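Project channel, design review

CF: Before we commit to the Acidianus hospitalis constructs, I'd like one complete example in the thread so the newer folks can see what an input/output pair looks like. Taking Transcriptional regulator, TrmB.
RD: sounds good, go ahead.
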Amino acid sequence: MEFKIQFPDGRQVDFHKLVEFLYGITDSEMNILHLLLSTDEKLSVEDISERLKIAKTSISKPVNILLSKGLIMRDKTEGEGKRRPKYLYYTDKNAVYNKIVNDLEAIAKIFCEKYKSHVESVVAK
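CF: and here is what came back for Transcriptional regulator, TrmB:
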């Protein structure tokens, strides 16, 4: 589903592109975030790889970036026998929604304060 945000002059931006810009994430990171937001399951690297049709080796860095930005979470499961532990990735949809809304509101507040200060300094000259 495509979701666009329309600006007052009629230009539109895809919501995914806005989120990419807001958090400085790439298309591949956004694809993983979108996948995790689209499911109620916890997904392994193998699951993500299979669903997005990308190599498992190209998933580690994007998920770590998404984790560091607080956009996804992970659970550790014990590997079978002497295998390494396995991680399952997921999102808390409400937490991601609240994070995006709060971050956009904070940006709008800062913009308003800075713009008001700028206008006042220009008018004072």
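RD: helpful, thanks. The chain has a mean pLDDT of 92.
CF: Residues 93-125 form one domain.
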